[in-house]
Recover the amino acids of this structure.
């Protein structure tokens, strides 16, 4: 088992960073799990003209300045994708690749990308559909698999699958637009823009695993995470901030919500420990 | 009740009679590391159900026989027959429900 934290923050954008700074100021041990900064939509923003004090900066400059604050305060950041979350009563276990972290509270700041499932994806999840090449790859040794590679590290993961003996059909972001996963009791084929590829497994690698998949039963509203004014989600101990809670998709809003989420998480931990 | 390490030597014999919970896992799987202590807690809590773990890396044949395509997978056996199968992380309440 890995280290234990007070607050584990999923997402290293403005909302997550703001939450981490406030958590740190409250004396809480925080950890951020994030993709590489370069993969975020903000990184590509040409110019931001409505964030106080930083008018005219590019998205990349702003994100670099913000992550610099994390370094200054020695707040740890783990690069990777969360593959599982488990509520354990008074704490949470979170798996990132092959590692597991414990925390008393979670803050979801996963951005606006709330993936929409492909036809067949939910029905065949665990029966040929997988989100985790390192978890399930070995079970497909010697078999035909398709990789729908939407995340930045997808090509690497496809190489990993080839390395352990899977026969990989790789779909990068541009190869097809419409996918359908076919099969009755388990996956038998992937249809990509109408063409059918017979496969035993389909690995769908996105930057973000849908919140509803990580925390089944969490209330969503219009494909966003439902929160109250204190940034509480419907799952006790889980808070959310930024684009994942809904419009407007603005940095100032994300930063404000991150601050509230961290204060609420701090209060939650205090209550829970007494 | 203690947790049994299941291999092809003792698998069939273990599940053949009574209720058995089998946890299919591997060392390279993060979510499996989260499932494991929950399975241990289930084993400790009761004595009606035998509990075993199959390392799929070392027991590919068993994994193949039961169509394991994603781990962690839990299978509840009753007298050798599959009673229930759960793919992905399962809290202890759901494990208990598998035998009801």
């Amino acid at each position: 088992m890995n280290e234990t934290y007070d607050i584990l923050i999923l997402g290293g954008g403005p909302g997550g960073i703001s939450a981490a700074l406030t958590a740190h100021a409250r004396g809480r041990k925080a950890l951020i799990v994030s993709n590489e900064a370069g993969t975020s939509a903000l990184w590509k923003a040409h110019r931001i003209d409505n964030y106080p004090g930083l008018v005219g900066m590019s998205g990349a400059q702003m994100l670099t300045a913000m992550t610099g604050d994390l370094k200054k305060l020695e707040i740890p950041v783990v690069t990777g994708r969360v593959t599982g979350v488990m509520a354990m009563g008074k704490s949470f276990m979170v798996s990132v690749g092959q590692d597991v972290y414990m925390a008393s509270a979670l803050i979801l700041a996963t951005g606006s990308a709330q993936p929409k499932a492909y036809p067949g994806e939910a029905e065949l999840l665990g029966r040929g559909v997988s989100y985790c090449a390192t978890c399930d790859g070995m079970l497909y040794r010697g078999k035909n698999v398709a990789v729908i590679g939407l995340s930045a590290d997808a090509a690497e993961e496809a190489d990993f699958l080839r390395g352990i003996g899977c026969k990989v059909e790789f779909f990068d972001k541009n190869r097809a637009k419409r996918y359908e996963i076919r099969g009755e009791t388990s996956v038998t084929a992937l249809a990509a823009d109408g063409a059918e590829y017979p496969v035993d497994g389909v690995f769908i690698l996105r930057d973000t695993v849908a919140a509803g998949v990580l925390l089944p039963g969490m209330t969503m509203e219009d494909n966003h995470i439902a929160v109250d004014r204190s940034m509480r989600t419907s799952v006790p101990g889980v808070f959310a901030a930024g684009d994942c809670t809904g419009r407007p998709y603005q940095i100032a809003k994300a930063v404000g919500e991150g601050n509230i989420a961290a204060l609420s998480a701090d209060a939650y931990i205090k209550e829970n420990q007494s | 009740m203690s947790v049994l390490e299941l291999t092809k030597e003792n698998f069939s014999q273990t599940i053949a009679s009574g209720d058995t919970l089998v946890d299919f896992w591997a060392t390279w799987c993060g979510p499996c590391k989260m499932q494991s202590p929950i399975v241990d807690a289930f084993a400790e809590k009761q004595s009606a159900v035998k509990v075993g773990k199959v390392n799929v890396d070392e027991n590919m044949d068993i994994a193949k026989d039961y169509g394991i395509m994603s781990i962690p997978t839990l299978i509840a056996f009753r007298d050798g027959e599959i009673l229930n199968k759960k793919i992905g992380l399962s809290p202890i309440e759901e494990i208990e429900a598998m035998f009801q």
Notes: Chain A has a mean pLDDT of 92. Residues 129-205 of chain A form a domain with the FAD/NAD(P)-binding domain fold (CATH 3.50.50.60).
